[in-house]
């Protein structure tokens, strides 16, 4: 039997044709998605019932909502037994919900301006297509916003700005512009100062730790544990303050050739010295010549949703660069830097944020010189920033680990140095991989700013829990205010999440 | 042009003396002796794991050696950072998996190092980049991203990217072994052209046709040592060592 059909040669090309049109129609969609099987049909019916019951409860609550009333009692009278919300509380306490109850009302406009300017300053960071020149404004924005929100003399933020610029110049001078011989001398001097300074600080710190331990006492199991822990830390510090000082001082001296560590430490020492000795007198002097004053507002008078916004914005923008630095430090070949970063990250990740906030509230005061008058908001910012930086560092570490080794090798083989390779090749890719994780941390951080209500700061939640719910006229108000708070947070967090998804699509380079 | 006509000068480009390398306890490279003159085209072959990659990666200090000396272009390779960067910018390298930077366009891939390492103005760097992209025959892809190109195109971009640094020596580590068969030729053609222009080349490859056509020396490595080296004709037609014979019979399918 012979079959000649095995060989086959196609003689003409099949022309391309469009894919078959999808069958449309709402009935078809419902049949496929809602009623495709008995189980599915049952689930659909149950879900429909639940949704309808919910709507039956919620819709009248909204529809009957009372917007004009002076108190909860008036609301109830107007509603006359019907179910309905008392939105009048939002109208009545609108300012307090947004700005807190102590911020001077005549200065609200300053916060509004600061928020509007924030949008402008954020534009060039968020969108690549915005002219790069706006970044200059972004750089100036923190100083402008500080002046607008806290008021006081304009000289304070201006002087701070000048100090930062000078610090950067010192850094460049030591790191790049002087000869190696000069740098060796500088490294010796700075290493000595930093080593002795560190040893001194640790010595004082050890004493303070013992003092804290004694003031905690041994009444109760928890106190005893804390007492022991603080004494342990204290003893440890007493043991190591001299070796640590010598070690760090020597490490700084030893870095004179590359110049990295010396220039950083010198710049930081310069900043510290300038802040403690020069800053106050000079800005006071300038202020006495030309005032440029806005009505000053104390940090403890900030409140409402604005406080959440301030904490959220400041902490996110500080913790991303700090997180990057920690992640890179953790990968470093230098054991000292690596060790510091690992200990920092692991310690912070092992402690609940609320503990850190209590520390900020109570304990940081122990470590600060009494006259330094270290602002509570600043302390809270440091703690939240440290907390989220540790998490962001871990997210970015994941991104760094996901990069193929070949990327490092290609950068090396082209002769790029560590800083160039990191900035131009490694970070852009690692950060892109890390966007979802970073956004996750940022959204969490923003919501966690409400925890400050527990250390008696009056952010949005603090306002609701305290002054509003405790006011005699608004006793019993609950859903309206918390619902409003949830809505504010939702709008911001949803916005962030949408932006991050958009950004991820923008950065996609494999298919266009 | 045949390989006999290609210029080989007396000037030494790379000199490796008694070089040894260990990965922990594992002795990867043993007493490597190799002198490469300027203009030489050397093909390195050998079984997988014999240390070919490690050897050429030592030449641009992607790997550190522990004993012996490597002198590239008159500069001794030590662990001193400064001269490592100098060597690396003089020695181009192409990898098996191209290692293009996926977040940068083809043009940006080619201009990055000239701009940042050589401090060449952007405009000039772009002109150079376009020149070399034309040379590897993909100037029209300059504004695409690596992910949008085929493997062969990516490898040619990688070659162009190295050439933009105007290297005096080029290292290739199995540049065609991750490619589909129909793309191998386009990459080899580019490399042949480069050889004809007198570039000093060290190439790890199993493309024996390429070795015959271009190389003036073939080196066979096994177990971390240079087992045999010879001119291509002699190497292929009359291998001396048993290990070479075995390897050649496997690779040429005899
Ligand atoms: N980073 C490394 N650490 C430990 N061993 C390695 C490392 N890189 C390569 N090796 C080992 O060194 C040997 C030589 O590797 P390689 O030079 O890549 O071989 P080839 O390129 O000839 O296939 C192999 O046995 C490999 O397993
Ligand atoms: Mg290899």
Count, helices of chain B: 9
Total count of domains of chain B: 1
Q: What amount of the residues of chain B lies in strands?
A: 15-25%
CATH architecture label name of the largest domain in chain A: Orthogonal Bundle
- Euclidean distance between termini CA atoms of chain A: 55 Å
Give the low-pLDDT segments of chain B: none
CATH class of the largest domain in chain A: Mainly Alpha
The CATH homologous superfamily of the largest domain in chain A is named MetI-like
| CATH architectural grouping of chain B | 3-Layer(aba) Sandwich
Helix content of chain B: 25-40%
Name the overall outline of chain A. globular
Oligomer: heterodimer
The structural domain count of chain A equals: 3
CATH fold-level name of the largest domain in chain A: MetI-like fold
How would you write the strand order of the largest sheet of chain B?
Answer: 6-7-8-3-9-10
Main beta-sheet annotation of chain B: 6 strands, mixed
Class derived from helix and strand content of chain B: alpha/beta
In CATH's first tier, which class of chain B applies?
Answer: Alpha Beta
Which strand order spans the largest sheet of chain A, edge to edge or round the barrel? 1-2
Keywords (chain A): Cell membrane, Membrane, Transmembrane, Transmembrane helix, Transport
Family (chain A): Belongs to the binding-protein-dependent transport system permease family. HisMQ subfamily.
Organism (chain A): Actibacterium mucosum KCTC 23349
Pfam families (chain A): BPD_transp_1
Give structural attributes:
heterodimer, A: 512 residues, mainly alpha, MetI-like fold, two-stranded antiparallel sheet, 19 helices, B: 254 residues, alpha/beta, Rossmann fold, 6-stranded mixed beta sheet, 4-stranded antiparallel beta sheet, 10 strands, 38% helix, binds adenosine-5'-diphosphate, binds magnesium ion, ATP binding (chain B), ATP-binding (chain B), P-loop_NTPase (chain B)
């Amino acid at each position: 039997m012979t079959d000649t059909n095995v060989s086959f040669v196609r003689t003409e090309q099949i022309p391309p044709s469009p894919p078959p049109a999808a069958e449309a129609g709402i009935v078809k969609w419902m049949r496929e998605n809602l009623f495709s099987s008995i189980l599915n049909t049952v689930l659909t019916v149950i879900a429909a019932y639940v949704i309808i019951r919910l709507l039956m409860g919620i819709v009248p609550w909204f529809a009957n909502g009372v917007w004009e009333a002076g108190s909860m009692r008036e609301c109830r009278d107007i509603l006359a037994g019907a179910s309905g919300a008392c939105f009048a509380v939002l109208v009545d306490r609108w300012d307090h919900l947004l700005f807190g109850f102590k911020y001077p009302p005549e200065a609200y406009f300053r916060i509004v301006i600061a928020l509007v300017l924030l949008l402008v300053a954020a534009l060039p960071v968020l969108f690549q297509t915005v002219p790069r020149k706006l970044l200059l404004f972004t750089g100036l924005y923190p100083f402008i916003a500080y002046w607008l929100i806290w008021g006081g003399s304009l000289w304070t933020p201006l002087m701070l700005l000048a100090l930062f610029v000078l610090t950067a110049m010192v850094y460049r001078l030591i790191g790049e512009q002087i000869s190696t011989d000069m740098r060796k001398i500088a490294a010796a001097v700075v290493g000595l100062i930093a080593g002795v300074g560190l040893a001194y600080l640790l010595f004082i710190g050890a004493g303070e730790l013992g003092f804290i331990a004694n003031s905690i006492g041994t009444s109760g199991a928890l106190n005893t544990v804390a007492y022991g822990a603080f004494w342990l830390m204290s003893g440890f510090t007493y043991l190591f303050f001299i070796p640590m000082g010598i070690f760090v001082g020597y490490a700084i001296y030893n870095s004179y050739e590359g110049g990295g560590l010396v220039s950083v430490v010198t710049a930081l020492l310069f900043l510290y010295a300038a802040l403690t000795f020069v800053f106050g007198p000079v800005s006071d002097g300038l202020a006495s010549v030309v005032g440029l004053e806005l009505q000053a507002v104390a940090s403890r008078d900030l409140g409402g949703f604005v406080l959440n916004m301030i904490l959220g914005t400041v902490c996110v923008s500080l913790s991303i660069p700090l997180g990057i630095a920690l992640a890179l430090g953790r990968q470093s070949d230098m054991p000292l830097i690596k060790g510091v970063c690992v200990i920092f990250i692991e310690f912070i990740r092992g402690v609940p944020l609320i503990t850190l906030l209590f520390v900020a509230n109570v304990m940081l005061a122990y470590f600060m010189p009494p006259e330094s008058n270290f602002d509570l908001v600043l302390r809270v910012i440091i703690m939240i920033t440290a907390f989220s930086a540790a998490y962001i560092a871990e997210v970015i570490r994941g991104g760094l680990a996901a990069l193929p080794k070949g990327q490092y090798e290609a950068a090396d083989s082209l002769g790029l140095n560590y800083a160039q390779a990191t900035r131009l090749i490694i970070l852009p890719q690692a950060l892109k991989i890390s966007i979802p994780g970073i956004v996750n941390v940022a959204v969490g951080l923003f919501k966690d700013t409400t925890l400050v209500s527990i250390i008696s700061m009056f952010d949005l939640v603090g306002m609701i829990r305290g002054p509003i719910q405790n006011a005699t006229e608004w006793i019993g108000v609950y859903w309206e205010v918390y619902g409003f708070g949830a809505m504010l947070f939702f709008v911001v967090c949803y916005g962030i999440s949408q932006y991050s998804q958009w950004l991820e699509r923008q950065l996609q380079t494999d298919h266009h | 042009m045949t390989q006999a006509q290609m210029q080989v000068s007396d000037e030494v480009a790379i000199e490796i003396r008694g070089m040894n390398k260990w990965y922990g306890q594992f002795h990867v490279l043993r007493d490597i002796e190799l002198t490469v003159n300027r203009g030489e085209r050397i093909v390195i072959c050998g079984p997988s794991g014999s240390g070919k990659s490690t050897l050429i990666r030592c030449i641009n200090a992607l790997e550190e050696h522990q004993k012996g000396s490597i002198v590239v272009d008159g500069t001794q390779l030590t662990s001193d950072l400064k001269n490592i960067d100098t060597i690396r910018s003089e020695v181009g390298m192409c990898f098996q998996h191209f290692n293009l930077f996926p977040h940068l366009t083809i043009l940006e891939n080619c201009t990055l190092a000239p701009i940042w390492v050589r401090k060449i103005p952007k405009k000039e760097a772009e002109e150079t980049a376009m020149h070399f992209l034309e040379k590897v025959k993909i100037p029209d892809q300059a504004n695409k991203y690596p992910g949008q190109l085929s493997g062969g195109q990516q490898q040619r971009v990688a070659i162009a990217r190295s050439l933009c640094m105007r290297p005096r020596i080029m290292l290739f580590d199995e540049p065609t072994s991750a490619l589909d068969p129909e793309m191998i030729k386009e990459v080899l053609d580019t490399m042949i052209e480069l050889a004809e222009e007198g570039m000093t080349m060290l190439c790890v490859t199993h493309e024996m046709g390429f070795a015959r056509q271009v190389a003036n020396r073939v080196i066979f490595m096994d177990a971390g040592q240079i087992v045999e080296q010879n001119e291509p004709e002699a190497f292929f037609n009359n291998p001396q060592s048993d290990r070479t014979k075995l390897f050649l019979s496997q690779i040429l399918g005899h």
